Amino acid sequence: MALMITDECINCDVCEPECPNDAISPGEEIYVIDPNLCTECVGHYDEPQCQQVCPVDCIPLDPERHESQDQLMKKYRIITAA
Predict the structure, then answer these.
(1) Closest alpha carbon to 4 in 17, 23, 28
(2) Global pTM?
(3) Which residues form a coiled coil (predicted)?
(4) Would you state the torsion angle of the CA atoms of residues 25, 60, 68, 64, taken in this order, to the nearest 10 degrees?
């Protein structure tokens, strides 16, 4: 699954630089995660780094984007091969 940022986001700016795939960017009101770039840090780290640094715990799994570990690894390989 890709991750998402909920409206509890306080725009603290700590998650964006932690994302190894540059999937996090400022949105109109809060930060957003591009689900096409989010691999939950698979291929880079054991745990999603944005979730680790978020002070308000507003980065859950996106229920609209079901992806297996294999699918996330495939996406990681495509992203990093470019």
Answers:
(1) 23
(2) 0.92
(3) none
(4) -80
The pLDDT of residue 60:
97
Cα-Cα-Cα-Cα torsion 20, 32, 15, 55, nearest 10 degrees, comes to -150
At residue 82, the pLDDT reads 56
**Which residues make Cβ contacts (< 8 Å) with residue 64, sequence separation at least 6?**
none
Q: Give the span between the Cα atoms of 70 and 35, in whole angstroms.
A: 16
And the tokens for 64? 């609209």
